[in-house]
Design a protein that fits this description.
Shape of chain B: globular
Largest interface: A-B, 38 and 50 residues
Radius of gyration of chain B: 28 Å
Helix content of chain B: 25-40%
Structural class of chain A: alpha/beta
Largest sheet of chain A: 7 strands, mixed
Distance between the termini of chain B: 49 Å
CATH topology of the largest domain in chain A: Nucleotidyltransferase, domain 5
CATH class of the largest domain in chain A: Alpha Beta
Strand content of chain B: 15-25%
Largest sheet of chain B: 7 strands, mixed
Oligomer: heterodimer
Helix content of chain A: 55-70%
Strand order of the largest sheet of chain B: 1-11-18-17-14-16-15
CATH superfamily of the largest domain in chain A: Ribonuclease H-like superfamily/Ribonuclease H
Order of helices and strands of chain A: HHEEHHEEEHEHEHHHHHHHHHHH
CATH architecture of the largest domain in chain A: 2-Layer Sandwich
Strand content of chain A: 5-15%
Chain lengths: 461, 808
């Protein structure tokens, strides 16, 4: 029996997808490859590894933003002493290189290719976009070589989720060549993380397209590009595989356009985030409730607080509270603000916030899109924590142990109620209750013994 | 692991006296002489030492010295020298002979000589890797933490993975993790691969059949990636005693091996007892329950304060034995039980606690599944009781080795069940105690398996047109994969062109990932298990009783398209047995030979006469259909009803070994037609049992069928196009003109059993005759030719007559 007959029974050879597979085209480049170049007006790039396509486009928007070094440093991981120095050196927007890739899959690993690498940089008052494309998988080496040259010229890499996805994937591709070294960027700014901190509460999802629609395309002007005829990005790998097997060039033009829009969105987002942080930092006009959603103000305060600007954070929390926040967030803001006030020894403000928190209604409704279960739980805990904070205050500052003991027992009752209502997990509740119970025991030991002694003494006299 | 010979003379004498007492007592009870079929005394063995090789670095000598290892056993020294000389090495050693030193010594020495050196240790299970980690950590601490050693498996936290990839000199993993976690992400392991000098494969004998065939392909991928980074690692393997360790290693790693078999480790004296439960119904061949008997035997040891491990072959039996033994050894309230259970499914913390308790002697007895058979350090116990034959001689020795590690007396008792294998072993102790007859086989070129790994290989690195991968034509197969949409050819390379990650879809434990999911709909729908495609129709056909963790489920519906079986919990007094109608078509005879009577054979005085029979092996197409089922009552095995089923038929291309009985032989059998048929089916039943013994496989790895021999080799037989329950019944009545008795590999593509069976046909036939002739039943029983109810009265007689005419 021949080998061919054997193959007929092999399950592992059954076609992976149900739809028709295009017939393979001839080994040399087919007219469709040239057709794609014509269709897009792309050029063929050559180096000693071979060829690939390159497409350049200049856009007047978004416009270049000049970041403030201090704001920039807030976007870099904290704790590194050189973070500020790095921010200083990357504050030159001419050094920035925006990057976004289109790939043959999202799984990662050594068998996933970045077949389209889009780059963008500020030029002539607008955005210059350049896209590298592999017409076939053997054009990868020449593409990667050109990419590292571009990156050497602009060593500050700006991406959206590039730290987890695009950059590790490209590093894998470079390693697979065993020949072309990857250029390690001096700084890698991944805007996904600040975007998540700033808008997750309000939007829930912080996909780039959501941000374009709700954050960038507001304030009186629409975006210069339209996503209405954009492709479904989950189809991109199949579109490329079809093209590789000799399919038409036209669908890929949509992939190029999609990537261009992503790059412009990324550049616009960078400007938006930096302007917002500049204003928060005091480098520009303070954000105002007329132009800013209070949820965004709260989120910005959180970001500033976490990344080392507590003074501005306190001001913005106050503004956000003044404008008005949905209930659970209001409590979170009060809690943070009380914490900041306490650190500045402003006990008047701190205790008034804790009192407010302690007496707030206990039922928490999740009434904003991005409020997660954990936010709701944290808001619920805030009431208990406020009582505990007050107890600390009355025990150590105001020297009123009875009041402190009262507040502590009150907090324990609250906690049990919350646990019964299912608002707080058992393990967490146990931990908090342990802490409260220890405090109460200590207060009672001291308080009660002292009182008893006094009474005894009084009786003896 | 210490090699000090701290002898405990006083305690040993007591142990020995108690073991002797038990043996004598058991023997005294065995009046018929049929119960203790073997009382084998293995004398103590002196250690054979060899000096530490001169090339071992002083700090390593010192570290081992601190652990009490001043000299090496002879096999350790031989292994270290072979590795040092650059040869791929396989060390065959029994339990507790210090095998880890065989690879740790040369590997650590190389790491100390050059800190860039990297080694990958592959263990068949996660638990074994964890156990080895402790030993290596200890050595690392003694050597001032000059090398990093980590386990890398599904439990490794993701934040620790990066450090492991960079700093692990020795990475301990398992085949599954290598397959799905390491190879597809090899760029992250660049440092490991660039400097990969050693690959250690521990417990090599576990890599056989399907799992072994997969591993061979994973190793093809591993070597391919290592080559990409300029490395060509050396292999160091360890194996339990089997007949072909060198051959197995060579088949798995596709390179030459040096085999080190001589064992220099000392061992205390040991009694090995075969205990065959007494026959209670000779006519039906029914014996007393081996579970109850095993519990009684274990109790003899436990009540004499001997630390005992009891092995059972299923989780259910573990629990049953545990209950019996805990009841027999009650503890005062509030105290932890003195007898504990141990199996997969217990939490890691609990397992560690039990292992410690055993080492420290706090726990007097443990009932375990095979989970404690390999590696895990529980110290040395006094006795091992095995409830049922573990399936292979190698496993039996490994379990027996749990008692009596280096010195002192110990005892192992094998309590046989009534299955054919158990009975054969119990009644042929020489077969067991002689040189191992067990061969481990793999078929790395099984197309189904190979194609799956070729896909994974393409994902890892584009496949070059001039590459080789196993015994196939790479370009032809790659073209087929391109047509199916998996690969794309560019220039001289095929690239992976799918979004999906191929390794995720390939399980190393089955040939195809085509599984049926079992859904319990008793209350909330819940998935309770999976069965592979080939067994689905016999196990979860509609109206079947499916057993899962001792609970019965009734199969309400089988959704063939969606690959789902819907079941409901029930409590009934019967189980079901599917009636399968199987037809085999020979596609290509790879080899064939006539069976010739030997000069000394019983029925022929002149040598070299034709037995009118032939043996063959080759490719076959197996078409089977489940046409009905029988309901069989528990305990009495009465047939209490049956049902018809209309299920799709299943066609499988595989390999087979077959015997052809030619017309003169069949015609000369002095039996009625139906007795002849019974004899053939009975013979096939016994052949299958012995084949599983020789091939170290499970009964479900082989299928059997009888069919008419095709008119000429290669010509097609007619399929019976309308099989049904009647056709299946008629098959037992129908007279064959020249029947073929098939033993086929129960996996698509075959898993490498057919050719070895063809080669070993003499051994197969001889041992089959011994099994049937040695069985004490009168007219056939499940232990030899199959249950009497399913065979004619003269099945046993007829089967023996056929074997006699085949010259055995």
């Amino acid at each position: 029996m021949s080998l061919t007959d054997k193959f007929a029974h092999i399950a592992a050879l059954r076609p992976a997808r149900k739809r028709e597979v295009a017939p393979p085209r001839a080994a040399d480049l087919s007219p469709e490859c040239d057709r794609l170049a014509q269709l897009l007006g792309a050029q063929i790039r050559r180096n000693h590894y071979g060829e690939h396509l390159s497409l350049q486009q200049w856009y007047a928007t978004p416009e270049m933003c000049t970041p403030d070094a201090r704001s920039l440093s807030l976007l870099l991981p904290r704790g590194t002493p050189e973070a500020h120095a790095i921010a200083e050196s990357s504050a030159d927007p001419e050094q920035w290189l925006f990057l976004d890739t289109e790939t043959t899959g999202l799984a990662g690993g050594t068998g996933t290719y970045a077949f389209l690498v889009g780059l963008a940089w500020w030029d002539a008052g607008g955005l210059q976009v350049e896209q590298f494309f592999m017409r076939d998988l053997d054009e990868e080496h020449s593409l990667l070589l050109e990419l590292s040259e571009r990156m050497a010229r602009r060593p500050v890499l700006v991406t959206f989720n590039g730290k987890c996805f695009d950059w590790p994937l490209l590093e894998t591709r470079y390693r697979m060549t065993r020949a072309i070294p990857s250029f390690t960027p001096k700084v890698h700014l991944d805007l996904l993380h600040p975007a998540r901190q700033l808008w997750r509460l309000r939007l829930g999802s912080v996909r780039l397209q959501e941000l374009e629609r709700h954050i960038l395309a507001v304030e009186g002007h629409a975006l210069e590009w339209s996503r209405h005829d954009d492709i479904d990005s989950s189809l991109i790998p199949e579109m490329y595989f079809d093209y590789l097997r000799g399919g038409a060039a036209e669908p890929l033009a949509g992939v190029f356009r999609h990537n261009q829009m992503d790059l412009r969105g990324l550049a616009a987002l960078a400007g938006k985030i930096l302007t917002l942080i500049d204003s928060g930092n005091g480098a520009a006009d303070a954000p105002h409730h007329s132009t800013h959603d209070p949820l965004d103000l709260y989120s910005l305060s959180r970001l500033l607080q976490r990344r080392g600007n507590p003074a501005r954070a306190r001001e913005l929390y106050e503004t956000a509270l003044h404008v008005g926040l949905p209930h659970p967030v209001e409590r979170l803001a009060q809690r943070e603000l009380a914490h900041l006030a306490k650190r500045e020894l402003d006990y008047t403000r701190a205790t008034s916030l804790w009192e407010e928190l302690r007496q707030a209604p206990k039922v928490v409704k999740r009434n904003a899109a991005g409020i997660l279960q954990e936010d709701a739980q944290r808001a619920l805990e805030a009431a208990i924590e406020a009582a505990e904070q007050l107890a600390i205050y009355y025990e150590h500052r105001a020297k009123q142990p009875r009041r402190a003991a009262e507040l502590t027992s009150h907090a324990i009752a609250e906690l049990r109620g919350a646990q019964l209502a299912g608002g707080i997990g058992a393990a967490r509740a146990r931990r908090i209750e342990g802490r409260l119970a220890r405090r109460l025991a200590r207060l009672e030991r001291h308080g009660v013994i002292r009182t008893t002694h006094k009474l005894l003494r009084a009786g003896n006299v | 692991m210490s090699q000090s010979l701290a002898v405990r003379p006083a305690q040993d004498a007591v142990t020995l006296a108690r073991v002797r007492e038990i043996v004598e007592q058991l023997a005294a009870r065995d009046r018929s002489g049929e119960i203790l079929t073997a009382v084998h005394h293995i004398p103590a063995r002196e250690a054979k030492f060899a000096p530490m090789p001169e090339w071992v670095r002083a700090e390593l000598v010192a570290a081992y010295g601190e652990k009490g290892v001043a000299e090496l056993y002879s096999h350790q020294a031989a292994a270290a020298e072979a590795v040092r000389a650059g040869r791929n090495t396989v060390v065959v050693t029994p339990t507790a002979s210090g095998k880890t030193l065989c690879y740790n010594l040369p590997v650590l020495n190389a790491v100390l000589e050059n800190p860039d050196t990297r080694a990958l240790y592959v263990f068949p299970t996660k638990a074994l890797a964890q156990d080895q980690l402790a030993e290596l950590h200890d050595l690392s601490a003694r050597l001032g933490h000059r090398f990093g050693v980590f386990t890398y498996d599904g439990d490794t936290p993701s934040d620790a993975r990066k450090a492991i990839r960079e700093q692990g000199h020795i990475v301990l993993s398992n085949p599954d993790m290598l397959h799905t976690g390491i190879l597809p992400h090899h760029t992250r392991w660049q440092r490991l691969f660039e400097n990969l000098r050693y690959v250690v494969l521990d417990e090599l004998h576990t890599y056989r059949g399907v799992f072994g065939s997969h591993l061979a392909n994973v190793l093809r991928r591993l070597r391919r990636i290592a080559r990409f980074y300029g490395a060509d690692p050396q292999f160091i393997c360890s194996s339990a005693t089997i007949a072909n360790p060198g051959e197995l290693a060579s088949r798995l790693a596709e390179t030459e091996f040096e085999v080190i078999e001589e064992n220099g480790a000392p061992a205390g004296e040991k009694f090995f007892i075969f205990y065959n439960p007494p026959v209670v119904n000779r006519f039906l061949g029914i014996r007393r329950s081996y579970i109850n008997e095993a519990s009684r035997v274990a109790q003899e040891f436990l009540k004499r304060k001997l630390q005992t491990i009891v092995f059972a072959n299923s989780r259910l039996h573990t629990e049953v034995l545990l209950t019996y033994l805990q009841q027999a050894n009650p503890m005062p309230p509030g105290q932890p039980p003195a007898i504990r259970g141990y199996r997969g499914g217990y939490l890691p913390g609990e397992r560690r606690e039990i292992e410690r308790g055993l080492r420290e002697g706090r726990i007097r007895g443990v009932v375990s599944t095979n989970a404690l058979e390999l590696g895990i350090d529980v110290g040395s116990l006094d006795a091992t009781i095995m409830a049922g034959y573990p399936g292979t001689i190698a496993s039996t020795w490994q379990r027996a080795g749990r008692a009596g590690r280096r010195s002192g007396s110990s005892c192992a008792v094998l309590v046989a069940s009534s299955s054919p294998l158990d009975q054969f072993i119990a009644q042929h102790p020489d077969y067991f105690f002689g040189r191992s007859p067990e061969h481990a086989f793999v078929q790395p070129d099984n197309l189904e398996i190979l194609v799956n790994h070729l896909k994974c290989a393409a994902f890892e690195l584009p496949i070059a047109a001039n590459e080789t991968f196993g015994g196939i034509n790479v370009p032809e197969l790659c073209e087929r994969l391109s047509e199916a949409g998996f690969l794309h050819r560019t220039g001289e390379h095929w690239h992976w062109t799918q979004e999906a990650y191929p390794a995720d879809a390939v399980s190393l434990r089955s040939v195809t990932s085509d599984n049926f999911v079992i859904v319990d709909t008793t209350q909330e729908t819940e998935v309770i298990g999976e069965v592979d495609f080939s067994s689905a129709l016999t196990i979860v056909h509609p109206k079947a009783i499916y057993l899962h963790q001792g609970q019965q489920y009734h199969v309400e519906r089988l959704d063939f398209e969606e690959r789902k079986a819907y079941v409901k919990r029930v409590d009934v007094d019967y189980f079901t047995d599917a009636i399968r109608y199987t037809q085999v078509r020979v596609l290509e005879r790879a080899a064939g030979d006539r069976i010739v009577l030997l000069p000394h054979s019983p029925c022929e005085s002149s040598g070299g006469a034709d037995a009118h029979a032939a043996r063959s092996h080759g490719d076959v197409l197996v078409r089977s259909q489940v046409v009905g089922f029988k309901k069989i009552k528990f305990f009495t095995n009465e047939n209490v009803g049956d049902g018809k089923l209309e299920l799709p038929e299943n066609e499988m291309h595989t390999t087979a070994f077959w015997l052809t009985l030619e017309r003169p032989l069949v015609a000369s059998l002095p039996f009625s037609v139906s007795d002849r048929q019974s004899g053939m089916f009975g013979l096939l039943h016994a052949l299958e049992s012995i084949a599983t013994l020789l091939l170290m496989c499970d009964a479900r790895d082989l299928g059997t069928a009888i069919g008419e021999r095709p008119p000429s080799p290669g010509s097609e037989i007619e399929w019976d196009e309308s099989p049904g329950i009647e056709a299946a019944a008629a098959l037992a009545e129908k007279e064959f003109f020249e029947p073929n008795l098939y033993l086929y590999d129960a996996y698509p593509g075959g898993i490498g059993f057919s050719e070895p069976l063809y080669r070993a046909h003499n051994l197969l036939l001889t041992k089959t005759r011994e099994l049937i002739a040695g069985c004490p039943c009168e007219k056939g029983c499940p232990s030899c030719v199959g249950p009497l109810g399913e065979r004619g009265e003269r099945a046993k007689e007829a089967a023996l007559e056929i074997l006699f005419r085949l010259g055995v």
